[in-house]
Design a protein that fits this description.
cytoplasm; about 375 residues; EC 2.6.1.16; aminotransferase; 13 helices; 5-stranded parallel sheet; binds 6-O-phosphono-beta-D-glucopyranose
Length: about 375
């Protein structure tokens, strides 16, 4: 049921304030500044025992995993990384007893991710799921998990499930952090920020018509860059992925820091860049990169915060509300969903069912 929306993707983007409410409901503990995640089936002692986190997923879920890995490193100070489950399962991975494996999947049926889980379990590892569909194959195969409660997602391009994946990682990071060195006050800081998020998302969605204008311009380019660094890099990857999936434009994500080591050679008037420029400790470095792109004739659209001072740089901006720095990627991603949606809309493509893609890939 489209409920009056022209596409499922539009509906699912607009549902995000409510779906975010659902994933945090009943899970935020103000007394101890922690997340209550009973479904993980891990005792505080077990949570303390992990010295590494490895996140596995495919496509957009893999990029959400990258967002999650950075959050876990920042909040819990445990080495964490994300890997494409489709690669992991084929490379005879080394499974360690003190690593917490996290499988992330909207459908819970993606075969590459399901096989990665199987491989971990076969070799005696501990794996929990961050899954949307209750009772799905991956949810059942894991030792425990956190359901995303995003509600049914129909459009091939994942939006609300992805946002809840990132929030699910914030909850796991809180649980891992609070049995380590993360203070109650810092835990509370994240909890308060999570509670404010549905309202902040609403305010980004209200910017839809303005974002649609930018999208129309970008849709005419045959090729574009999405750049971000550290927290912003998985945001850029997800932005490029969405653009590719539904607008059929060549969109390439790059670490902003790596531009000068090669891809800057491609920049000209025909190759625009979407730059993730948050107000954080890397703002000046990001602005310097924007300046370098502009100096080579490249158009830039910045996804940024109010406080960022672009000075003389003449750059159109999409401004998102500031949250706690560790959570910035969640809000920075939302305008990129709208950008891809409106680009595909202006090009007249089948938004909910892009060519060559399936909602979940369940066969080899
Ligand atoms: C891909 C879909 O094949 O599977 C992507 O086209 C999706 O949109 C990916 O992100 C992973 O799916 P899931 O269900 O495991 O999150």
């Amino acid at each position: 049921d489209l409920g009056g929306y022209p596409h499922y993707m539009a509906k699912e983007i607009q549902e995000q304030p409510e779906s975010v409410e659902r994933i945090i409901r009943g899970r935020l503990d103000d007394r101890f500044g922690v997340a209550r995640l009973d479904g993980l089936n891990l005792t505080p002692r077990e949570l303390r025992g992990f010295s590494r986190v490895k996140i596995l997923g495919c496509g957009s879920a893999y990029y959400a995993g990258q967002v999650g890995a950075t959050m876990i490193e920042e909040l819990a100070r445990i080495p964490a990384d994300a890997e494409a489950a489709s690669e992991f399962r084929y490379r005879n991975p080394i499974i360690e007893a003190d690593t917490l494996y996290i499988a992330v999947s909207q459908s819970g049926e993606t075969i590459d991710t399901a096989f990665a889980v199987e491989e971990i379990k076969r070799k005696g590892g501990r794996v929990v799921g961050l899954v949307n569909v209750v009772g799905s194959t991956i949810a059942r195969a894991c030792d425990g998990g956190v359901y995303l409660h995003a509600g049914p997602e129909i459009a091939v391009a994942s939006t609300k499930a992805l946002t809840n994946m990132a929030i699910g990682f914030a909850l796991i990071a809180l649980a891992l952090g609070r049995v380590r060195d993360l203070s109650n006050a810092d835990g509370q800081r994240i909890i308060d920020a999570l509670r404010a998020m549905p309202g902040q998302i609403k305010s980004i969605l209200d910017e839809g018509p303005r974002i649609a204008e930018h999208a129309k311009e970008f849709a005419t380019a045959n090729s574009l860059f999405f750049v971000g660094r550290v927290r912003g890099y998985p945001v850029a990857r997800e932005g490029a992925q969405k653009f590719k999936e539904i607008s059929y434009r060549h969109a390439e994500a790059y670490q902003t820091s790596e531009l000068k080591h090669g891809p800057l050679a491609l920049i000209d008037a025909a190759l625009p860049t979407v730059a993730i420029v948050p107000a954080d400790e890397l703002t000046d470095r990001n602005l310097a990169a924007v300046q370098q792109i502009k100096a080579r004739g490249g158009a830039v659209l910045a996804v940024t915060h109010e406080d960022v001072d672009f000075g003389e740089l003449d750059v159109p901006r999409i401004v998102v509300p500031k949250t706690e720095p560790e959570l910035d990627p969640i809000l920075l991603t939302i305008p990129l969903q709208l950008l891809a949606y409106h680009a595909a809309l202006s090009l007249g493509y089948d938004i909910d069912k892009p060519r060559n893609l399936a909602k979940s890939v369940t066969v080899e």
